[in-house]
Amino acid sequence: MCGCLEEDGEPYSPGMASLLLHYESLLGLPSPWEVSEVRVRHEIEEIEVVVAWKGGPPACPECGVAGPRHDGRSRRWRHLDTMQYRTWLVATVPRVRCAAHGVRQVSVPWAEEKTRFTARFEALVIAWLLEASVAAVARQFGLSWGQAAGIQQRAVRRGLARRELSAPRRMGVDETSFQKRHEYVTVVNDLEGSVLYVADGRGQAALDGFFEELGPAGCARIRQVAMDMARPYIQSVRKHTEAEIVFDKFHVFQHLGEAVDRVRRQENRDLARAGDDRLKNTKYLWQKKTRNLSRRQQVAFAALRRSGLRVARAWAIKQMAATLWGYQVRGWAERRWKEWYGWAIRSRLEPMKRVARMVKGHWDGVINAATSEVTNARAEAINSRIQWIKKMACGFRSRKRFRAAIYFHLGGLDLAPAAAGFHTKP
Questions:
Q1: Are strands 183-190 and 195-200 parallel, antiparallel or unpaired?
Q2: Is the distance from CB of 224 to CB of 374 less than 8 angstroms?
Q3: How far is residue 388 from each of residues 256, 400, 405, measured CA to CA in Å?
Q4: Fewer CB in 10 Å around end: N or C, the chain?
Q5: Where are the beta strands (DSSP E) in 99-231?
Q6: Does the reported pTM lie above 0.85?
Q7: Are residues 243 and 380 in the same domain?
């Protein structure tokens, strides 16, 4: 170790020598890099750790062949704070003249290329970005919003480059809103893992991109796909795979719940014209589970269910559908669903008949769901997390940043810079 140790330009006490040794030990710099100087500036609460190249001719970062030194460029990187003092690494980085690649700047061991932060500083910021919004992290670390967002973007690119995308045996597909005005992204997830793929839109091309990235061999490994009844997704799965399509019961019940409410609204208008307000303010009685109603609500709801109202009949059809899941034998499932279909299609309730026709049109996928343990619950949980990410960020203006945020929080990626010495993925 060589060099001088200064505080505000003045020779300093032996106590500063221990600080020099501390930084040399903490950074763990490989030869020929050494800590040559530490400058403490109390008036602005900053520390500069000067690192010097103490070796011979530098090597080309492209081919590793040593060559004559061309020149050097002074650079500085934000490092982990020392107590309340903001800390910077300062170094004159040599450039080598390579016969094969021309003039190239030597890579430094404490930071990645094209960044003004050390790897350990970026790793700390990444850890906080996993817990808080970009704006909050930027504020706490004294960064601009763009700098904090840039660290997140680099982390995602790094994680995706390290990841080896493999086809899951069981996967889920769902859409989630990006903004209002029906702006969506398609999210593909491993039903036993994390987010695998995010694409703009909710058309067939969005899902085609995932299968094309997997290739024919990867697509052949997929056995089951859980999804809603979106035709573009169905067409994409059938085009690229031989997988069994499973329509999650959550989506079936979503359609049934909407159908019951349409029946209630129409009947309420008919009754209101005759001066009967029994169905006024009863929307959520027909949507909630009975056990979640108060005692007073249960009494009122029981009287409505026993009435001859059309909505009571629609609700009963929906409740029967709730019992048609979890069959071990496919034949029994088909028999009971055919009974349900016959009741619904003869109910003289157009919204319920519409759902019955939809079930018949997607018969195999519904029966697959009724006889399989596979559900899209994982995708729904991921969708809830995505809504939390949107709320924490107060929305996104850029699709690119929205996709990156989903990968960052839910992709299970190894995000930390390699030079940090540790990784963020368990």
A1: antiparallel
A2: yes
A3: 27, 18, 11
A4: C
A5: 102-105, 170-179, 183-190, 195-200, 224-227
A6: no
A7: yes
The per-residue pLDDT for 379 is 74
**DSSP conformation class of 10:** E
Give every strand in the sheet of 195-200, ordered side by side.
Answer: 195-200, 183-190, 170-179, 224-227, 244-247
Two structure tokens written together for 129: 């970005």
Amino acid at the residue 205? A
Contacts for 226 with CB less than 8 Å, ≥ 6 apart: 170, 171, 172, 173, 191, 246, 247, 248, 369, 374, 375, 376, 379
Rounded Cα distance, 228 and 205, in Å: 17
Given 77, 110, 143, the domain boundary residue is: 110
Range of the domain at 10: 1-110
pLDDT averaged over every residue in the chain: 87
User: Distance between CA 379 and CA 130 in Å, rounded?
Assistant: 20
∠ Cα 119 124 130 (to 5°):
120
% of the chain residues with pLDDT over 70:
93
Same domain for 225 and 295, yes or no, is no
d(CA 332, CA 236) in angstroms, rounded, equals 30
Cβ atoms 185, 239 nearer than 8 A: no
